[in-house]
From TrEMBL:
Biased segments, Low complexity type: 13-26
Cross-referenced SUPFAM superfamilies: S-adenosyl-L-methionine-dependent methyltransferases
Pfam families linked: Methyltransf_23 (PF13489)
Organism of derivation: Oleoguttula mirabilis
Name of the protein in its database record: Methyltransferase
Region (Disordered): 1-44
InterPro entries hit by this protein: SAM-dependent_MTases_sf
Alphabetical list of PANTHER family matching this protein: 2-METHOXY-6-POLYPRENYL-1,4-BENZOQUINOL METHYLASE, MITOCHONDRIAL, METHYLTRANSFERASE
Amino acid sequence: MASLDALEASDPSSVAQQIAAAQSAATVEHDVAQPDPPATPTVTAPSVQVGDFGVLEVDTDPDRDSALGDDDNESFTTSINSTVTDYKFEHGRRYHAYQDGKYALPNDDAEINRLELQHRIWQLSLSGRLNLAPISPTVRNVLDIGCGTGAWVIEFAEAHPDCRVTGADLSPIQPTLVPPNVEFIVDDITSPWIYMQRFDYIHSRAITVGIADWSGLVEQCWKNLEPGGWVEFQEYHMPVTADDGTMANGPAFQLWNDSLKAATTKVGIHLDAILNVPPTLKQRGFVNLGTAGTKWPIGPWPKGKREKKIGELTEKDLSSAIEGSSLRLFTKVLGWSMEEVQKLVKEVERDIAARRMHSYIPIDFLWAQKPYDAVD
Ligand SMILES: C[S@@+](CC[C@H](N)C(=O)[O-])C[C@H]1O[C@@H](n2cnc3c(N)ncnc32)[C@H](O)[C@@H]1O
């Protein structure tokens, strides 16, 4: 966290202020201790940018803000061991066993390392914040759906020792040595949820590839939230894009984007689905919607030290994700041969490494509250 703090200190203005602005616009002042919760106002927060890089500016003097030499370039190897289940092995990668075939990405060590690296990018994006929804500091029950390695769950639990935090995922790839207020369960979040209690806050992050029916997911969140509880989605949407036409400098990367969209669409998954979730939330009765967005540059091409850092990490993250996200989808759904997939993967990796694109992944934050007077 030291380098994150240093970055924050060098840029005291925008991140904290903009997050605060987003939250104050969306916040309903509520104190969970008070006996009569206020009637829920129906204000909708304006969209805001998180961080100071809503517009990424191309750096023409890359040495200035170089992030090279920072210790974050170290290996992201984790000590997590997956021991439990009858995993599926295909094309040299390992996949979840529970609800076999439900999720297209692997769950092996390479993917675990990638998720840990990506967790660092989320941390940088939010200056260490874990949530943007203005939840009460005294939340009691929290659920993270599609929790992956459980990094978010563990950090949230450590920050809220009186709160019970549950992480649910298809894969039991979480560590066993965890804070006492953490519980991990293997579950398919697209099946009906059966929990003993309702939650004060339901969080999810980067689950788009696993979700075909967002209305169904919103419905489950509604049913499993306490009145006054918050739901928050921290997502990305695809395709990867560039504002200045430089995607043309990466033809293989562009082909991969198009093919990923074709494959996911064929199985009913829309990589830009999060953009349509706000009306779904409103329609279901959620109030106090808040949204924020940022961009993860791919490579250290933008100006700014933090932007470069996020760019370097995102470049690593994506380079690792290209193969993992393509193998199952391109062979099984698009009918490509393994050799064709591997050839494209190599070409995409070359396109990314050449750093001739000013590309980025659009990132979306979305939160909303179940009214205190909700009727289920
Ligand atoms: C890209 S990872 C993100 C993990 C974690 N949220 C994070 O941000 O580090 C997506 C996770 O969603 C999980 N997932 C996908 N579909 C799921 C489903 N139907 N039920 C439960 N988990 C699912 C995957 O197993 C994977 O761990």
